[in-house]
């Protein structure tokens, strides 16, 4: 896909530059361009919850700049939705909320209306930048022993799980692995089928896409994902810590402090997951080192 300032046609995916950002929409006519939120700068201070899919004329959309239309490659033209349907889909979504500057922005909206899939180059750039930083994300959950165990899409993880006979231990390991997969998806965008796992001589799991570590204990499971070597565990008793190891006492996990060891990764957030509903309960910056 390339971009060109040319005569616009109904159903085109269009964009205009606003400072350091691009603003995207679906062109219907000079009197109607459908977009997720107004161009940057026209609604200063607008909260994400207040941003909606809306329609404006081309002058408002372009803000005095030059609107560019997407020029699709032959392969992309075969995949794109018909122009008439693209317009209909965009109009159906007018008033829709749920804006997120990284994961659900104006580019996602326009691309999905035209190509049928949700994608954003700006999101990919943010992910590439994030992957290049030495950061770690920690995921925690209370183990729902009454819940069932679903098979993974990854055969290696299923084999690892089957090796554990004791039911409570198996559930603990399952929850830790599930947290690890959530972390790899949320932090780096990797789907389960993209991942290859191996087990080293030390018995620890490794991944082809990122550094991972999992742990579980009585009632709690944890996982850490990073682009730098990392290890996570639970500390039942006080002990001497290595220079690159730190202990966190997370609210709700006071009886099982979490230890994290990394030579150079900066720990960014902890994510508290609900094992019963498989949903994120809370995401917060990690507290200062203890």
Question: What features would you describe in this structure?
Answer:
With 290 residues, the protein is α+β, with helices and mostly antiparallel strands. Helix content is 25%, strand content 30%. The chain contains 7 helices and 16 strands. The protein has helices at 58-62, 74-79, 83-92, 106-115, 121-132, 155-162, 167-188, and strands spanning 2-4, 13-18, 21-29, 32-36, 53-56, 68-71, 135-142, 197-199, 205-207, 211-217, 220-226, 231-234, 245-248, 258-261, 266-274, 279-285. The strands form 4 sheets. A 6-stranded antiparallel sheet has the order 1-6-2-3-4-5. β10 (211-217) and β11 form a beta hairpin. α3 (83-92) crosses α4. The chain is elongated. The N and C termini lie far apart (49 Å). The mean pLDDT is 86.
Mean pLDDT: 86
Overall geometry: elongated
**What is the ordering of alpha helices and beta strands?**
EEEEEHEHHHHEHHEEEEEEEEE
> What about the largest sheet?
6 strands, antiparallel
- Uncertain residue ranges: none
Q: Assess the beta-strand content as a share of residues.
A: 25-35%
Number of helices: 7
Strand segment count: 16
Side-by-side strand order of the widest sheet: 1-6-2-3-4-5
- Which structural category do the helix and sheet elements fall into? alpha+beta
Helix content: 25-40%
N→C terminal distance: 49 Å
- The rounded Rg comes to 23 Å
């Amino acid at each position: 896909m390339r971009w060109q300032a040319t005569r616009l046609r109904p159903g085109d995916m269009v964009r205009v530059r606003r400072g350091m950002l691009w603003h995207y929409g679906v062109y219907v006519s000079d009197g109607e361009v459908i977009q997720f939120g107004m161009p940057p700068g026209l609604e200063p201070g607008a909260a994400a919850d207040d941003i909606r899919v809306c329609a404006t004329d081309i002058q408002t959309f372009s803000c005095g700049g030059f609107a560019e239309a997407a020029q699709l490659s032959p392969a992309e033209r075969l995949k794109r939705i018909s122009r008439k349907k693209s317009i209909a889909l965009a109009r159906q979504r007018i008033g829709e909320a749920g804006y997120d500057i990284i994961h659900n922005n104006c580019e996602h909206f326009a691309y999905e209306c035209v190509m049928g899939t949700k994608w954003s180059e700006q999101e990919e750039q943010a992910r590439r930048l994030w992957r290049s930083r030495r950061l770690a994300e920690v995921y925690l959950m209370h183990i729902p022993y009454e819940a069932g165990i679903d098979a993974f899409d990854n055969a290696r993880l299923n084999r690892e799980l089957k090796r554990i006979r004791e039911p409570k231990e198996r559930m603990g390991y399952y929850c830790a692995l599930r947290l690890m997969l959530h972390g790899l998806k949320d932090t780096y965008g990797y789907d389960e089928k993209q991942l290859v796992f191996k087990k080293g001589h030390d018995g620890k799991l490794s991944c082809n896409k990122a550094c991972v570590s999992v742990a579980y204990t009585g009632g709690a499971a944890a996982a850490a994902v990073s682009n730098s070597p990392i290890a996570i565990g639970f500390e039942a008793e006080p002990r001497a810590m290595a220079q690159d190891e730190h202990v966190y006492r997370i609210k709700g996990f006071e009886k099982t402090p979490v230890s994290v060891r990394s030579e150079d990764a900066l720990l960014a957030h902890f994510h508290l997951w609900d094992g019963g509903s498989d949903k994120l309960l809370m995401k917060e910056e990690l507290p200062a080192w203890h």
